[in-house]
Design a protein that fits this description.
Helix content: over 70%
Number of strands: 0
Shape: globular
Structural class: mainly alpha
Radius of gyration: 18 Å
Order of helices and strands: HHHHHH
Keywords: Membrane, Transmembrane, Transmembrane helix
Pfam families: DUF7519
Number of domains: 1
Length: 168
Amino acid sequence: MVAVSEITRKPTRPGTAMALSAAGFAVLALGFTTSTAAVGGLAATVALAAGLVRGSRRIVDAAGGLFFLSLLFAGASGAGTEALLLAAVGSILAWDLADNARSVGDHLGRETDTLRLELVHAAATLVVLAVGAAVVYGADRAAAGGQPITAVVLLLVGVVALVAVVGR
């Protein structure tokens, strides 16, 4: 007789660990901007952890929104480009990895060995984010050198569109 076991449809452990690590990195980077942004990032990390424990897409998405608001606050307070870009890469990576851990866990179950799958996903996402951050950093340096601001804005819109399309 074959034993049939029920699939635990919760976020995977490797994906959860990677998402929370990226969130911690984002909070650390936000700490180099303002303490208020860092507290917002910490609240986002707590929400992300709650979303992963419950397996809730809404809570994970709300955590992404909190990261976004923290980044906006840090940017509005005049934070440096480098710290903002690092925080943005960390927070987007955390949200994406959490969403992926939730999705993979829902489809394959928590017990399935998904480490290789999730490492490849994390690496691909990180490459896309690093390229986007490099373009934004280059645009920032070009804008500081007297380039037309319209070109910089259009370039940034293109990077956001690229990240949005590749992310989904």
